[in-house]
Write a structure and sequence with these properties.
Blueprint: E1 2-11, E2 14-24, E3 29-33, H1 40-47, E4 55-60, E5 63-64, H2 69-74, E6 76-79, H3 91-101, H4 106-119, H5 135-147, E7 153-157, H6 165-180, E8 184-188, H7 192-196, E9 201-206, E10 209-215, E11 224-230, H8 237-242, E12 247-252, E13 256-261, H9 265-277, E14 282-287, H10 290-300
Parallel strand pairs: 3-8, 3-9, 6-7, 7-8
Antiparallel strand pairs: 1-2, 1-4, 4-5, 9-10, 11-13, 11-14, 12-13
Helix pairs in contact: 3-4, 3-5
Bound molecules: adenosine-5'-triphosphate.
Length: about 300
């Protein structure tokens, strides 16, 4: 859905993106992660056609972002990390304005406002001015503005920053619904536990380069990143695991191991049974969370 080739972007005196190549699958939800200054916002702004790269190309739904920005914008919603809402407009007026500026036909606008308000549970707020809304509700209005034209691709830069856990959870549910409806999402955040709730892929940026781009276990095609801890150390842990054909070890100590497992859930259960049978005193066994996977990537890989 998004194809990026050889993308390089410079701010005066600073290379923010360096020769990025990337392909984002249709219908995926990609968690865009990386330290402050890694280039996440710049990448989103380039995909949204808001910045002109030094070199390289970006295509969204088969359309070149530089050559056909307006056509791309019809397929895309973008929520910037610092968004503003018109304080004196009601929620309905904000959505109407967004619909009109996205070029929706006059007769389609009322239905678009109705559908979007329903999707975001804003039906009861339509007549309320945005200045009187809580931060969580304002965030939802901003997302509503970004999806009013039913885009195929949605870019969200730090959508959950400043939200309380309940509002974050509501956003996670919304993003899953948008994905189910066929939308492709690219979401940046520093809160990995939140991204984990709905992401199918993880894209790690470091110093303007891609450190890793891979499917997470939510994705049907992926291998799982598993970890295992022992109640008492066993020097044969690595050897026993490595003997299994679907295990790819990434880190082992006498009492702990992290590895990718390419088998099914049944095969994972079988692996656990075999390890117990081999005499390992297993105290925990399961999937690594996104934070652990991210930290592992940062620790183990040099930028490509
Ligand atoms: N307008 C600008 N002029 C010069 N340098 C900039 C400008 N905007 C960003 N940068 C630099 O480009 C790099 C990438 O910035 P970017 O905002 O894309 O990172 P980020 O990953 O989104 O960071 P954060 O997590 O803090 O939002 C940083 O080193 C930043 O200081």
């Amino acid at each position: 859905m998004i194809q990026i080739s050889g993308l390089t972007f410079d701010y005066p005196g600073h290379r923010a993106l360096n020769q990025l190549n990337l392909s984002v699958e249709r219908g995926s939800v990609t968690a865009l992660v990386g330290a402050n200054g890694a280039g996440k916002t710049t990448l989103m702004r380039c995909i949204a056609g808001l910045e002109t790269p030094l070199s390289g190309s970006i295509a969204v739904a088969g359309l070149d972002v530089q050559e056909e920005p307006r056509a791309v914008h019809r397929q895309m919603g973008y929520l910037s990390d610092f968004f503003g809402l018109y304080q004196d407009l009601t929620v309905a007026q904000c959505l109407e304005y967004a619909a009109a500026s996205q070029g929706l036909a006059k007769e389609a606008i009322a239905a678009a406002i109705h559908d979007t308000a329903q999707r975001l549970s804003l039906q009861d707020r339509l007549k309320q001015k945005t200045s009187s809304l809580s931060r969580g509700l304002r965030q939802r209005v901003a997302i509503g503005q970004a999806i009013i034209h039913s885009p195929q691709v949605l870019l969200l830069d730090e959508p959950a920053s400043g939200l309380d856990p309940e509002a974050r959870n509501e956003l996670a549910i919304l993003f899953r619904q948008l994905q189910t409806s066929g939308m492709t999402l690219l979401v940046s955040s520093h809160i990995l536990a939140e991204l984990e709730a709905y992401s199918s892929h993880m894209l790690v940026l470091k110093d303007g380069k891609i450190l890793e781009h891979r499917a997470l276990s939510n994705s049907p095609h992926s291998s799982r990143a598993l970890q295992l801890s022992l109640a008492s150390p066993n020097p044969r842990l690595a050897e026993i695991l490595a003997a299994h054909s679907k295990v790819l070890l990434s880190k082992t100590q006498d009492h702990h191991a992290e590895f990718d497992f390419s088998g099914s859930s049944d095969e994972q259960a079988q692996l656990l049974a075999e390890l117990i049978q081999a005499g390992l005193a297993i105290s925990s066994f399961g999937e690594q969370n996104l934070q652990q996977a991210y930290l592992r990537t940062i620790a183990s890989k040099e930028a490509k």
